[in-house]
Amino acid sequence: MKINAGRAGAWMLLGAMVVPSTALAQELSPEEAVSTGKVQAPEIAPVEVEEEEDERLEWDFRLTSEVHSSDNAGFRQLDEENGNQERIETDDRHTFAYTSIALGANYRVLDDTRLNFSASHSGLWGSDQIGGTNEYGGFFYVYDLNVDWTAVDVDGFELSAKFGRQAHTIGGTPRDYFLRDNVDGLTLTLDMEEAGRVRILAFDLYASQGRPDTVSFLQWHSGRDLVYNMRGETNTFRYGGVYENTDLVEGLEARAFGYFASIGGAGTGADRTHEGTLGNFSDNDFSWLAGARASYFLELDTARLGVYGEYAYSGGIDRKEVNIGVHDVAIDGQAFGAGLSGDMDLGPAGLSLALQYFRADGAQYGADGLQYNHGFVSMGGSYAGGLNMGRYNGWRPSAYVSRDGIAHGEHDIRREGGTQILHAGLGATLEQGLRLDLGAWMYQDTGSTNLDFDRLDAAGDRLPSGYSRDQLEAQQRLGKSLGTELNASLSYQANDALSLYGVGGIFLPGEFYEIEITRNAGSARGSVDNLQQFWAVSAGATLVF
């Protein structure tokens, strides 16, 4: 629950660009403070309570209030002339405000046993929503609820275990596009000092979709009710681990990792039975990834420089009902990235610079127009972009293992598909507590198709039941530029506890969205002659103590 304020600080600009670091002190992740999707664990840095009782309790409290306004998240101008459906889809102007409160606490029960807890409550202003329950299932959303037990602690070796809900990430970069999530299960940490450290995700019950009709719990799960119990194969599990060494060579951090997910019988994990409607067995889908990440940091008298590189490969299978003429969809792709950062002390001011590149393989479609490969599939990593595409639209730079199987939607407003990202950021800090951040992201789709668009009608006539010619036409977008996002922010550190900030961003859609599609193919329909820029602004204050 503590932030590494040392070497990790060199990369802070990459993760916080445009969204000030003070603005990130809320229960949502930097990439998703407004998005309505899955939340991440808060980066809480506890402070010790100055009381007796052997200083067992550490805690952190944060309160954030923000106002937001945006328009054209679907890249189309308001259309009130062509029926109700067009009016509904294009009327996406929003102005709202919200407040969130987060509390984190660590309690040392015994010398080798700690209790960790962090939770938050968020509510929109107006209509008494702050005082009501929220969309995450209750009045509080729990990020951490676990027991941390040090089982072995001898010279040169320590073994510890965490049981329960906890944050898990590979580490070594501010935007972990491979895995950054909360897990419900068991993790083990083997610390061998200079020989490195092994962090094992021994068990993660990622999703539960069972039908325990005879189990006397008040609420077994919050997912869908399956028709059958799928022979008990209703859970999605994740396993894996990371080997990391940050002490062998000064300034060098090296990590190797591997993860595996067995996908339960719900969502894309039960395509062959249409989610249990036609049978009681799962597809036995699975996904895995493996890779490495390395970074090097150089500490100078007035500057800190850093560089990193990463690579991962994913494999697996997403089985389909091949009897109707579709293909099993392979999971076969790679992802890689690199970054450069620098923090410089210029006396009365500070300057920060960040450059980052990332690419994940996208979907592949055959000559018949049907998908046969998801490309690279992550285990659920960070969101891409800044205020617009990260916090509002919740873009993922690749397909990923979700609670409903493989999440993949390159034509949706909440995009989940192979993407190439080029990011540049510049930040300046003044002694008066002011900080200015500028950021830019260029996005490109990485999907491909072998479909001959000159024979589109013939291909459409041969499509299996449930597929349409509209989906074939949408493949003309693949491989094209998605657009450019520009963000700017200004923050002011009023005192040690209070910060104020304002953020603005605009997304300029690229040629990918100049090809208009129907709603049968995706929610980000685009437009031939009415493509609009997506803008967003926000302002707020955060209190931390």
Give a verbal description of the structure.
The protein is mainly β and 545 residues long. It has helices spanning 12-16, 84-90, 387-392, 456-461, 469-474; strands at residues 47-48, 57-71, 94-110, 113-124, 141-154, 157-169, 180-191, 197-208, 235-245, 252-262, 286-299, 303-318, 329-345, 349-360, 364-365, 371-373, 377-378, 399-402, 405-407, 419-430, 434-445, 448-449, 481-493, 498-509, 534-544. 6% of the residues lie in helices and 47% in strands. The strands form 3 sheets. The protein has an 18-stranded antiparallel barrel. Strands 16-15-22 form a 3-stranded mixed sheet, with no helix packed on it. Strands 17-18-19 form a 3-stranded mixed sheet, with no helix packed on it. A hairpin with a 3-residue loop joins strand 20 and strand 21. The longest helix is centred in the first third of the chain and has 7 residues, at 84-90.
Order of helices and strands: HEEHEEEEEEEEEEEEEEEHEEEEEHHEEE
Rg value:
24 Å
The SS-based structural class is mainly beta
Largest β-sheet summary:
18 strands, antiparallel, barrel
| Oligomeric category | single chain
Low-confidence stretches: 1-49, 211-223
Mean model confidence by pLDDT: 84
Number of helices: 5
